[in-house]
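User: structure tokens for this one?
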Amino acid sequence: MACASFDTNSTISESAAEPDLGAGTGQTRRILLLAALATTACLGCSTHARAGEDPPGSDERPQKGDLLVFSEGDKEGKLITAADLTAGGPPVHAWPKDPNTSVVRSASRLNEILIIKLDPAELDEKTRARAVDGIIAYSAICSHAGCPVTAWVKSDVGDKEVFKCMCHNSEYDPRASAQVVFGPAPRRLAALPLALADGSLTVAGNFVGKVGGAQPG
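Assistant:
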């Protein structure tokens, strides 16, 4: 009985082993096929990711000679001309654009700029020196916590309209080099000298002052 039992178990074990080997071979083939498909898919994804990367120079600070383009709205990406600005505001938001490569320097939020046209007689001497026909430009990033400066409103401490950061209510007077007139901001907005070239606004020099916030937002 013991021998018969042993022979029966051996036969069953051997029979069971054969399908396992076949299944293993089939499974190995399926794994290899899936791996090949996954590799092909990943290669495609890598190519797509590389194609979607920001172009060289897009995160560099504004350079002398850069053009200025709208950063938002219906005219996003189009050149800003003096005729696009309304005297007395509101300001427009802009990115610098490399005129040689056509790369818009929008990969860093620190490159966004506020541009406004004011009466040249209202500008102090230093501000007037960086302006062109009353058009002046500043960093659009609050010097307090790095929030965007988005509002053009009547000041809480005067009768003139000012730039305002709605995060912590810091206010800046663009007529006086964007000095702080209200709120916790520790310093003025960085200024960007401007020029005109064939009617379009261009950058005439580097930022004057530090760009960005003094503390995390």
